[in-house]
């Protein structure tokens, strides 16, 4: 069974929660959290859509065909890769490049990048 990753954000404090195959809406700060829908914010796609390349067994994910800014005010805190029944996550800080490496093996996958200002972005790889 394939896993489905759902990412929620608290509208009050900005907390992020990842839910795998859950059927409930998490709450934070006394309110239901918002389910993030990928690629729905009007922002520069060239800086937000994950770009994926394979080097042997390694999958390299770069957020944006033009690297996304990584400042305290505007950055990519998370990159996820969903494959088979597994989820890989990289946590980034403003001091990092918007790049992560994973070893998912062969097959289809979904890649997500989360921008703290412009939300969730997704790329599907067959």
UniProtKB/TrEMBL annotation:
Desulfoferrodoxin N-terminal domain residues: 4-36
Record's catalysed reaction(s): reduced [rubredoxin] + superoxide + 2 H(+) = oxidized [rubredoxin] + H2O2
Pfam families xref list: Desulfoferrod_N (PF06397), Desulfoferrodox (PF01880)
Keywords: Electron transport, Iron, Metal-binding, Transport
Record has Oxidoreductase as a keyword: no
InterPro entries: Desulfoferrodoxin_Fe-bd_dom (IPR002742), Desulfoferrodoxin_Fe-bd_dom_sf (IPR036073), Desulfoferrodoxin_N (IPR004462), Desulfoferrodoxin_N_sf (IPR038094), Desulfoferrodoxin_SOR (IPR051233)
Molecular functions (GO terms): iron ion binding; superoxide reductase activity
EC number: 1.15.1.2
Coiled coil segments of this chain: none
SUPFAM superfamilies tied to this protein: Rubredoxin-like, Superoxide reductase-like
Residues in Desulfoferrodoxin ferrous iron-binding domain copies: 41-123
Family: Belongs to the desulfoferrodoxin family.
Function: Catalyzes the one-electron reduction of superoxide anion radical to hydrogen peroxide at a nonheme ferrous iron center. Plays a fundamental role in case of oxidative stress via its superoxide detoxification activity.
Protein name: Desulfoferrodoxin
